[in-house]
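Quick question about two entries, pasted in order.
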Amino acid sequence: MFILEVLNLIKMKHITERQRYEIYRMQQSGKTQAKIAFVMGCSQAAISKELKKGATKRGNYSPKIAQEATDERKKRFSYNRKFNREIERFVREKIEKYQWSPEQIVGYCKKNGIPIVSVERIYQFIRSDKANGGNLYKHCRHRLKKRKKCVGAGVGRIPNRVSITDRPPQVAERKEFGHWEMDLIQGTGKSYFLSLIERKTRYVILKKLENGKNADDVENAVFTALFPYKKQVFSITTDNGSEFSNHLNLCKKLNITVYFTDPYSSWQKGSIENANKLIRQYFPKKTNFDNIDYQTIINTQKIINSRPRKILNFKNPKEIFFYNFAC
């Protein structure tokens, strides 16, 4: 009777706040994810995703945290996406007057809560303007010459990716230790570095990829880099490069969640982008990383992590990182 009553009440497309407290109650009573999913009338994967969304630092499920994450996502994507005249004027001004790219326009609007359409929709508008004799495309950096596929076309190549929009708000706030960002830095030829940064402390880890940027090597490098801190690694945020397609293996090995940014939204992982600029100070473009030995990489990492940072009240990432790690 109880199960039928719950199913009648809660068979909805999205989990509501009331349902979250029901999930919490069932979890506290010892029910498995499969049992909770059956009662809730949804898949076990949906329950697993919900539990991760509302996870506390200790790994327990909090319906309050899960609801806050959902509210934040709704707030972020509640704006009108219709390409109206007001948006057209805004886009034209930013492109013609300031030469902003579509990615910059969308990124700026999302960050500041301004109604906007997608990056690809703006490119469609530019192409349409060009076809009708307009010169908007001339203000673009590449004048559309290098656009051979739609923005976001590569996202589908990564199976079971978890969007950054599902990332708990405490990660963005940098109040919790153990959330990382990662990226690759390219040298000449097929030489690459893997770069990682812990969001709260700005601690950087740098590793050379011996065999280029294939997914297996990237997976092994990330696991090797973070394994010593495994108990306090909770998430990694990265972009949609195919080299990160083994993310599910990392999730299993490190017991974490890997979040993926929106296409062409590097600002959503700004910490690692800034860290890469610091690294480039020591390994500028056109450097062949194959010629860089292990000790040089370690010494560079030590130097970067020992530099006092204004954002850390002029303490250095190394001391802040290991203080948090020891707690």
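Here is the second entry:
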Amino acid sequence: MRDMAPGSITDVAGLLCGHFTDSRRPTGCTVVIAPEGAVGSVDVRGAAPGTRETELLSPTNSVESVHAVLLAGGSAFGLDAAGGAMRWLEERGIGVQVGPARVPIVSSAILFDLMMGDASVRPDAHAGYAACVAASTGPVAQGSVGAGTGAACGKLFGIERGMKGGIGTASITLHGVTVAALVAVNATGDVVDPATGRIVAGVRAPDGRTMPGGAQAILAGEVPLHLRIGAATTLGIVATDAALTKLDAHRLARVSHDGLARSIVPVHTPVDGDTMFVLATGKTQARLDATVMGILAAEVTARAVLNAVLAATPVSGPGVPELPCARDLPAP
């Protein structure tokens, strides 16, 4: 089994990160907070996204500063969690001054985990607020926590033949600039190690003990089940302390999807809502060549994806399918 990659999104100066994990069923949310604001952008590649306050991140739109990005389970219901993050920020005077009010800018995206237990339990404003309360600059917990609690991968032939997903993070520092990623892996496809091509977690054979590869099974003639629209989704945040313009951030968000494509097969499917955000705090005031930044962003994203499944642990409860973790099955 490959060792987990080092680093955390909180290695980026100016950011805090916190999880809320629901004790009632496997679900939760994760927030990354930029109290002083950060240049933000987003790129959505999956065909079934669930998002809030993403259009304002377009480089053609006026708002420059983002104060938090929240990732949540619960499908579209989970977007309510962003309201709790807004309340926490407002209480601390964080936001954009608009007339008499200071409005926190909280962008959000959700993943589908409603097949993991009681679907009436999902992240809400209380959950988003609690994630903010838990946020710190310390190391970030990985695996089956926060937005990754109910995540799964390898669902081409139904979740029953899948494996546990999760949330992972990693960072790289080069020439005085740190680039980090936080990724919640709830993919239709398999998670593969780009260095070896080996499957780390994904579709299991009917015997449940081996991983033949979902794409390989389809190429061999096996027909996938009818896949539910929006029943998967990988969400991520790439962050840096470099100085970026909003257009720079948008380009970096696009390139960061290369990291997903290297580590998840297939990715960006019609039933996924794959979404990547970028936050740039500018704390170092340093700048690296855009191509170098893109290489770092794609690499750290792929590392965070692998960490997500390597750190995953079993979850349980009424109506929760028994999904093995990467540590339970040998790589093929």
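Reply: Residues 9-316 form a domain with the L-amino peptidase D-ALA esterase/amidase fold (CATH 3.60.70.12). The radius of gyration is 18 Å. Hope that helps.
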